[in-house]
Amino acid sequence: MTEAQTVIGHVNAIGRYRLASLRKHLVLCLLLAAVVLVFLADIATGPALYGLGDVLKTVLMPADAQAQMRVVIWSIRMPSALMAVVVGMALATAGVQMQTVLNNPLASPFTLGISSAASFGAALALAFGLSFIPVAGDYIVAVNAFIMALGSALIIHSVGLRRGSSVQTIVLLGIALVFSFNTALAMVQYFANDQAVAAIVFWTMGSLTKATWPKLAVTAAVLVLTIPIFVYRRWQLTALRLGEARAASFGIPVRRLRLETLVLISLLSSIPVAFVGTIGFVGLVAPHIARMLVGEDQRHLLPASAMIGALIMSSSSTVAKVLVPGAVLPIGVITAVIGLPVFFYLILKGGRETW
């Protein structure tokens, strides 16, 4: 190959890279626009239907809106709509990083038992007022959920470090944890009083109707604290997809990276569970859709997964309010209906098409 041909080859490679990067940025812009539109549709949907134009005006200029509409939008619908976006981003981010550090296409906080563990910890607080930390105060449910989720994640991490452990081993362990914590949750319901059982059952289905500004602030704070860490380590996480040996050859502390990431995953998955209940399949489905759109590079995969998670949650919130007139269905049921077909597809295909 002549020097001229080498130069032309490099130029063509740079051109293809820039074109692919431009396409990925365009996808991210379109996802952001879709999230904004679905978010506005979520706010506009309810017992009283409002036009998107009126909703947008009320959101941007609340002082000029009608008093009744301003109260409905800002005091009732805005917290739940924003919570849907934040929870979707948190669960999708947790899912994509869990799949990355465990090298498992079926890994997510829901399928590997972390959400079930968080549910059990939160149920102990709801039913009996038990707290793993005496000074938890008003956030006893969130603290219990986080501690149990972290314990479940550490179990998965420790098994994954054992010599001879495989993807199948981790999946089977996750299934065992799901059944174990679901059984423990059933025992809590059996011994709890009727009022506590009703609260636990309603909570385990997932609902945004009890979202408040303080709960939203805590959930958003967790997201704001964890996302920059993942962005800072985007190259390490991308390199980890090449395999542990290759990542270690680049000087990446694989074990420490995996452990720290699992702690952040526990935080991202437990806080939404504590505030809005069990939401399944968002952390599994969103990362796979993102990979099909933008690939494995964490620079694009992380924001794409987060926005797709927000899009799924906001869409589910809207559907939950319009599917049955006069009633708001549990959002966990809607996300399960969306996620189950994708989950079955991944099982049947072995995850090869999207991994």
Query: How is the CATH topology named?
Result: ABC transporter involved in vitamin B12 uptake, BtuC
Shape: globular
Q: Secondary-structure element sequence?
A: HHHHHHHHHHHHHH
CATH 2nd-level architecture: Orthogonal Bundle
CATH class: Mainly Alpha
Helix and strand content put the structural class at mainly alpha
Task: Tell me the Rg in angstroms.
Answer: 22 Å
For the largest beta-sheet, the strand count, sense and barrel status come to:
none
Beta percentage is under 5%
What is the CATH homologous superfamily assignment?
A: ABC transporter involved in vitamin B12 uptake, BtuC
Task: Show unreliable segments.
Answer: 351-355
Number of strands: 0
Instruction: Please estimate the helix content.
Output: over 70%
Mean pLDDT: 84
Q: How many structural domains?
A: 1
End-to-end distance, in Å? 35 Å
User: How many helical stretches?
Assistant: 14
Subcellular location: Cell membrane
Membrane topology: Multi-pass membrane protein
Family: Belongs to the binding-protein-dependent transport system permease family. FecCD subfamily.
InterPro entries: ABC_BtuC-like, ABC_transptr_permease_BtuC
